[in-house]
Design goal:
Residues 76-240 form the DUF218 domain. The chain has ten helices and five strands; from the N terminus they run H-H-H-H-E-H-E-H-E-H-E-H-E-H-H. By secondary structure, it is α/β, with parallel strands linked by helices.
């Protein structure tokens, strides 16, 4: 009964309710305006396909499975990429929180520090006027987790992955560091590596923040539209990879 209820709710809440309405409208139009009805039906099906977890899960999984955490570490610095932050939300030791993805990256960076005691470069600025400076918030939280203040280097200017790579390279050159262990979300790793390679760095990838299990299973609720499908997230990564030559 629980899964039946979830299934029904999925079509009563956005975007499911709008997909049902558009589908009903396309059926109604078909009797009088067949060409317009066909166009509306195609648009509706496109919205439906992009909104269901079955598609989003497999798209994000195709990115996440490309790299696995290494068994042995050989770097001389840990590089953590930001992934979103609030500026003024209350926290234990100061204002501002990292987003879910960025927080998972931070936990991995802190745990890697405990294993290696390597310095950590945190790269990420304030992307929008109402978001926090990611590197500064991450530094505060890393200190809270026991990482010494003098082992954390902040890079606060980057607004995208290309700038992450270029600004991190400048810091590494200044500190004579050459072998970064790159910590970012598994779905974001492919695009990150390509940007860091273009900036002249060979990284050891350490993916984290996995969105899906490696073994995907289909069930009825995979086909219920939801606003939290990973389709958009995955398509953004694929688009970024495809257009990378144009960005450089």
């Amino acid at each position: 009964m629980l899964y039946i209820t979830k299934f029904i709710y999925g079509f009563l809440l956005p975007p499911g309710i709008f997909i049902l309405l558009l589908l009903g409208l396309s059926i109604w139009l078909y009797r009088q305006h067949r060409w317009e009805a066909k166009c509306l039906f195609i648009i509706t099906m496109g919205l439906y396909v992009s909104s269901i977890p079955y598609v989003g899960d497999r798209l994000i999984h195709s990115l996440e499975k490309r790299y696995e955490p290494p068994h042995e570490l050989y770097g001389d610095v840990i590089v953590m990429l930001g992934g979103g932050a609030t500026s003024d939300t209350p926290d234990i030791t100061g204002p501002g929180h990292l987003s879910g993805s960025a927080a998972n990256r931070l936990l991995t960076a802190a745990r890697l520090y405990r294993e290696t005691e390597l310095p950590i470069i945190v790269s990420g600025g304030s992307v929008f006027s109402d978001t926090g400076i990611e590197a500064e918030i991450a530094k505060r939280q890393l200190i809270d987790l026991g990482v010494p203040k003098d082992r954390i280097i902040t890079e606060t200017k980057s607004l995208n992955t290309k700038q992450n790579a270029l600004n991190t390279k400048a810091i590494m050159d200044r500190l004579k560091l050459k072998h970064p262990i790159l910590v970012t979300s598994a779905f974001h790793m492919e695009r990150s590596i390509l940007n860091f390679e273009r900036a002249g760095m060979k990284v050891q990838p350490y993916p984290t923040d996995y969105k899906k299990s490696f073994e995907l299973r289909a069930h009825a609720n995979n086909f219920v539209p939801t606003g939290s499908s990973y389709t958009g997230m995955a398509m953004k990564e694929y688009l970024g990879i495809l257009t990378l030559p144009l960005q450089w």
